[in-house]
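Run: sequence + zinc ion -> complex structure.
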Amino acid sequence: MGRDTDYQKLLGECISFHGHLCMGQVMGVRIAVKGLELAATKDPRDLIVAVEVDRCLADAVLTVTGTRLGRRTLKLYPYGRMAASFLNTATGKAFRVHAAYEGPPAGDDEAAMRKILELPDEKIVAWEEIEFNLAEEELPGKPKRVVACGVCGERVFDGKDRPGPNGPTCPACLGTAYYSRKST
Ligand SMILES: [Zn+2]
Ligand SMILES: [Zn+2]
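>> structure
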């Protein structure tokens, strides 16, 4: 990464995966490249990325970094911000990178969007070293905890259960479900 980074090539890969060119792909490339440079992992398996939006940008970040939700190397914290953090699990060092540019975004103007790839880092992103507070259960590898929910009986992985009157209980049965049952 750095000066020799082929931003246009990376953007092409992002467009292939995501389906269109947009500010999310452009900013995702800029944030991901900067994050990879800062995290400086020697082995790509030492990288964990937290993305803060479940929109276009997230696809670019996973494409460029090679992290995946299903491999537990990509975490989603839907704060609605154009930002991502990059943890090097070998060194414990982590950095958060966010979009930071002056003036109106490029809109749908393709040439203007591509121009953003040529700006120096300081003109388009900001970053800082952070403490990445990641629970042991969130790391890749075999699940450290699997229990049966005392209410629904389904298996609950990775310490997502909480104590309840019927023993360990999944978040849905504790009343924080994204769905509700249809009454029959
Ligand atoms: Zn998009
Ligand atoms: Zn349950």
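>> summary
DSSP finds six helices and nine strands in the chain. The longest helix spans residues 23-39.
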